[in-house]
Design a protein that fits this description.
Chain B: GO terms for molecular function: antiporter activity. The structure holds 2 protein chains of 2 kinds. Chain A is an all-alpha fold. Chain A has helices spanning 2-20, 25-46, 67-98. In chain A, helix 1 packs antiparallel against helix 2 (25-46) and helix 2 runs antiparallel to helix 3. In chain B, helix 33 (740-751) packs across helix 34. Chain B starts with a helix and ends in a 15-residue tail after the last helix. By secondary structure, chain B is mostly helical. In chain B, a hairpin with a 4-residue loop joins strand 1 (58-65) and strand 2 (70-76). Chain B contains 35 helices and 2 strands. Chain B has a two-stranded antiparallel ribbon. The chains are: A mainly alpha, B mainly alpha. The interface between A and B is large, with 90 and 100 residues.
């Protein structure tokens, strides 16, 4: 199971990379969202996908799944949401002011006059 | 902290007070306040003459950074004292001269004297420090103050150019010297010059010996304007004349000479030292004198003359170093060269200082330094003319002045170099006397040009800005003193015995037991005398026919001069670094990302495969379930769909599909809290995307180039593969058990919660959560600020918008 999940995470990250390398801002932001999903999936997989009960002590189970990666993922989800929403609004504002979403046209001017 | 430390630091202390004196005593020329100090210091240093004459030295140590062996250790021996006397004596005269040279009303005197005092203190520090690192600090201070003094008239472009040039070249050498100092420290474990001299056996047999030697010589050659580093000196002539007289004739350019002399006992036994010091010295001597003849500006003539005389001293020091190679056999075979070097060092300081002051007077009184405009000033400025004659004849090496004596000894030293029975001197040794003789001829020519083109010939009042007349007496006193010294040392050279002898003991290696300083005018009819007569005859002949043979200077290709090389080199460096920077710094975000991802793939891939980290181990994996496989397929399909859709809406929906599959995965993998959070967040995210969606443009219909796509594909494939490989390898090599058993055991007992994930989030690892809250807050504030704040600049555009 872990092998399949690792490959899925790899595919997600590959797609995310491809999107991040494109020219339009929206695609780049979609790419970062995808990258976050890949990372979370990878975190979960690395923690081990042993079949145990959900980490709730009330269930009196023999074994529980590892709660620590879940706590880490929860933190990561929230943070990536904050960053993604910030990016989105940034893109929206940039488009409002600069009238383009093409990264090549947004190229910084290196020679400060 | 003893008196001598205070003496070395006193110029710096006075420099602090100078601006106040300038501000509150407007009626008095600031120079008078400064003049007192070098005079007192000179008198103070004179007291040490009796100490060094008895072969004793004076030491005093002040702690600075004891933990790494850096102490401000003062070591005053013959060599240090000789330089200290030069610095303070000529310093006093130069300050006196500058009082009359610089006008109180027109010039910013406070800065001038601050820089000059800073230089004086730094120079004293260089020659009296025993600790190499302290010496280096003072060495760089001389570079800095010289830079400031050259660009004193900073509104002139040429001043700034000359200052920059001297700064670059001397600091380059200074840094090389620092590296040499560190190498010495690695060899002997000490920064002290005396301890290094004591450990000379360790140093000579060490593998770092030659690099250290080369680095030290780089420092000395750049500071003392040796070929090919001499190019900064003529451009430093943009400085006020007192500065040229002080820094670029008597003191700073001799710092390199001092360094070579000081380190002689350490390095002298090696052929590399001999060949480099003598070879560069003799080439510099020839090239400087050869170039001086073609100059039309008086200061430029003197600059090239300084270069050549420094080369002369340098070559003599090199030949003198041969004394270290031979065991002492009872005759002062090679010590004569060192003696000549020290003697000429004093002589050069006297006559060159006075000549610079003379040129300054001419410039001051006529408004020009161009010898094509000058002439016939003999009757108008008789005193200046006399001073010029004395200085120039001494420079040319004519009797009865002191230059003649050192020139004779110079020839003696060069001829004796032929007898060194080692280091290929039998064959290549002829270079020295021949080049020395030719250079002396040229020296004679430019000395004559300097005097006779300026003071005799036709008087051309129409070309001059001012009506020339004799200089004020105050301006004449310093050059008169110096010229008197030229004459006095010429007639009574033995007066200097007390200064020269101790200096020789400092330079020469310890196996030289006794040096007898004997300087006579008349050695009988020997080779040196005939060489001098030859110099005079050929020199006069060439001076009179200069119009005929002067054309050879035009043969030299203009494109190959060292200045052109330096300027071209600077431009090339500038352009090269710009081009190099533009190569990766395209300004396109995508290019940077390609580089970052590419580097990541290469680095991680190489690590993975060269350290055999990649392995797949299937023993410890969970069984495959049908639901998970279906969900995985759904997820992969929706992720890949995003790449190919043409509309934004489809992309957003596909991303939402990936997010909801994620939360389903969380359900399947027994993570209820994650599933909840993921569902909510994904919903909000998609809503946000759709909110912005209305304002954002359509995905571009323009098809990207194939190359663009292929590069992106390769990079993303690489990243994906690396992630998969690393993930598989990590999974296959579990090193130890997880710590989660603790959470299981303690979650209820200690924290009183049954939901382990929540207990971890707010109890065991509450800090993470606190700052995760902070992240969300900051994001919210940031978004609010972006939407609300509209800070456009006044032109109506947005700040930072490229025009």
């Amino acid at each position: 199971m872990e092998i399949i999940m690792t490959i899925v995470a790899g595919v997600l990250i590959a797609c995310a990379t491809y999107l991040i390398l494109s020219k339009s801002i929206l695609r780049i932001i979609v790419g970062t969202g995808l990258l976050a999903h890949g990372a979370h999936l990878l975190l979960l997989t690395m923690g081990g996908l042993k079949r145990g009960m959900a980490p709730l002590l009330g269930q009196e189970a023999e074994a529980y799944t590892d709660p620590l990666p879940q706590a880490l993922i929860l933190t990561a989800i929230v943070i990536s949401f904050g960053v993604t929403s910030f990016f989105l609004v940034l893109a929206y504002r940039a488009y409002q002011e600069l009238k383009t979403d093409d990264m090549d046209k947004l190229r910084g001017n290196e020679n400060h006059e | 902290m003893s008196l001598i430390h205070l003496v070395i630091l006193s110029p710096f202390l006075l420099a602090i007070l100078v601006p106040f004196a300038h501000k509150y005593f407007k009626s008095i020329h600031t120079g008078w306040f400064v003049f007192v100090l070098p005079l007192f210091l000179f008198i103070y240093f004179l007291q040490f003459l009796s100490t060094t004459m008895n072969g004793e030295t004076y030491t005093s140590t002040m702690k600075w950074i004891p933990s790494i062996g850096i102490d401000f250790a003062v070591y005053l021996d013959g060599l240090g004292l000789l330089f200290a006397l030069l610095i303070t004596g000529i310093g006093a005269l130069v300050v006196l001269y500058s009082i009359y040279y610089l006008s109180k009303e027109k010039e910013a005197l406070n800065t001038f004297y601050v820089y000059l005092l800073m230089f004086m203190g730094a120079m004293l520090g260089v020659v009296l420090s025993d600790n190499l690192l302290v010496m280096y600090s003072f060495w760089e201070l001389t570079s800095i103050s010289s830079f400031l003094l050259i660009s004193y008239w900073y509104h002139r472009e040429k001043s700034r150019y000359g200052a920059q040039k001297s700064m670059l070249i001397t600091v380059f050498g200074g840094l090389a010297m620092l590296a040499g100092i560190i190498l010495l420290y690695l060899m002997t474990g000490s920064f002290s010059i005396r301890e290094n001299i004591a450990n000379v056996d360790v140093i000579t047999s060490h593998e770092l010996f030659v690099p250290a030697l080369l680095l030290f010589l780089l420092g000395a050659f750049t500071k003392s304007a040796q070929f090919p580093f001499h190019i900064w000196l003529p451009d430093a002539m943009e400085a006020p004349t007192p500065v040229s007289a002080y820094l670029h004739s008597a003191t700073m350019v001799k710092a390199g000479i001092y360094l070579v002399a000081r380190m002689s006992p350490v390095f002298a036994g090696a052929p590399e030292w001999f060949w480099l010091v003598s070879g560069f010295g003799i080439v510099t001597l020839f090239w400087g004198s050869f170039s001086a003849v073609k100059q039309t500006d008086l200061k430029a003539i003197l600059a090239f003359s300084t270069v050549s005389q420094l080369g002369l001293i340098m070559s003599l020091l090199g030949i003198g170093s041969a004394a270290a190679h031979y065991d002492y056999i009872g005759e002062n075979a090679y010590t004569i060269a060192t003696l000549a070097a020290v003697f000429h060092l004093i002589n050069h300081a006297t006559f060159k200082g006075s000549l610079f002051m003379v040129v300054g007077i001419v410039d001051h009184e006529t408004g020009t330094r161009d010898i094509r405009k000058l002439g016939g000033l003999m009757n108008l400025m008789p005193i200046t003319f006399t001073l010029a004659i004395i200085g120039a004849f001494s420079m040319a090496g004519l009797p009865p002045f002191n230059g003649f004596l050192s020139k004779e000894m110079f020839f003696t030293g060069m001829l004796q170099a032929l007898e060194i029975g080692a280091w290929n001197m039998e064959t290549l040794g002829m270079i020295f006397p021949v080049l020395a003789w030719v250079a002396s001829v040229f020296t004679f020519i430019y000395s004559m040009v300097l005097v006779f083109k300026t003071f005799t010939g036709k008087y051309q009042p129409e070309k001059l800005d001012k009506k020339p007349h004799e200089a004020p007496i105050g301006m004449l006193i310093p050059p008169i003193i110096l010229a008197s010294l030229v004459v006095i040392f010429g007639f009574f050279p033995m007066l200097l015995k007390g200064v020269i002898e101790p200096a020789l003991y400092s330079i020469l290696p310890s196996n030289v037991l006794s040096v007898e300083v004997k300087i006579y005018h008349w050695h009988g009819f020997n080779t040196e005398l005939f060489m001098t007569i030859g110099v005079i005859l050929v020199g006069v002949l060439l001076y009179l026919t200069v119009a005929k043979w002067g054309k050879i200077y035009d043969w030299f290709p203009q494109r190959l001069t060292l200045n052109k090389l330096y300027d071209g080199g600077l431009v090339a460096l500038d352009r090269g670094s710009s081009a190099f920077t533009r190569l990766p710094m395209t300004g396109f975000i995508r290019d940077y990302l390609v580089m970052i991802f590419g580097f990541m793939i290469i680095l991680l891939g190489a690590l993975l495969f060269f350290t055999d980290a990649f392995n797949v181990n299937l023993t410890n994996v969970a069984p495959v379930g049908i639901y998970e496989v279906i969900l995985a397929v759904v997820m992969v399909i929706s992720a890949v769909t995003i790449l190919f859709v043409k509309s934004r809406l489809a992309a957003i929906i596909a991303l939402g599909a990936v997010g909801y599959s994620m939360s389903l995965f969380f359900v399947l993998f027994r993570a209820p809290d994650l599933a909840l959070t993921q569902l909510v967040i994904e919903t909000v995210s998609v809503a946000l995307f759709l909110l912005c969606f209305y304002h954002l443009p359509e995905l571009s219909k323009k098809m990207d180039k194939l190359r663009f796509k292929v590069t992106n594909f390769i990079i993303s494939l690489g990243v994906g593969l690396i992630v998969i490989f690393i993930g598989l390898s990590v999974n296959s090599s579990k090193l130890f058990e997880s710590i989660s058993s603790y959470f299981e055991a303690a979650s209820y007992k200690e924290a009183g919660g049954k939901n382990m994930v929540n207990v971890i989030l707010v109890d065991f690892r509450g800090f993470d959560t606190l700052f995760e809250i902070a992240v969300l807050t900051i994001a919210a504030f940031g978004i609010y600020a972006m939407i609300k704040l509209r800070l456009a600049d006044k032109k109506g555009g947005v700040k930072g918008e490229s025009k």
